[in-house]
Amino acid sequence: MFSLKPDKQYPKKLYSKAVIRFQDCDPLKHLNNAKYFDYFFNAREDQVATIYEFDYNDYFEHNKTSWVVYNHQIAYVNSAKVSERIGIISSAIYFNDDTLVTEFVMTDENCTHLKAVLWTTSKYIDVITGKKTPHQPEVNAFLTAICVEGIDFEHINLNSRIKTIKQELLAGTFI
C-alpha cells in the first residue's frame, strides 16, 4: 500500500512519452477526440504507479475509497497525428477536502508545441456507500506533497491556463 516517505521529494509534474497509434486515429490521420482521454489516463496511471509507487487497486481495496470523475474540460489545440511521438505531462493542480483536479497536457515530443489540455475534476467517495467523503489525513498529506503550487484554480479558466502553458513551453519552463 502507498505510504508517503517524509524524506522523499516528490515531483509535482509527471512526464512520459507515447506514440500515436494508427487504430486510434480518424481517416484524416488525426487522433480521435475520445482517444485523447485514453492516452492521458493511461499515462497518469503508469506515471503515478512508477514515480509515486501508488497502487490504485491496493489502495482502494484497503481504504474502501476512490476518486470518481465529476467533470472534464478539454481543449484540442493542435492535432496529434498517426505515428507522432508525444509527451504527456500530468499533475494535481488543486484539491480540497473531497475534490481533486488533475491537469493533463499533451505536447510534441520536445515539449515545445501544445496539442491538448484536459482538466479532470474528481470527487472522493466511499465505495461502500457511493457518497462523497473527506480525504483522510494521509491523502491530504500526499496531495499536499504532489500538488503543483501557484495555479489559482478557483480563479482561472481553461483558456487562460492554456495561454500560460504555451508561454512556459516556449520558454522551456513548463516541466
Automatic annotation (TrEMBL):
A GO MF label: hydrolase activity
Enzyme Commission number: 3.1.2.-
InterPro entries hit by this protein: HotDog_dom_sf (IPR029069)
Pfam families referenced in this protein's UniProt entry, alphabetically: 4HBT_2
The entry's keywords: Hydrolase
Protein name: Acyl-CoA thioesterase
Organism whose genome encodes this protein: Arcicella aquatica
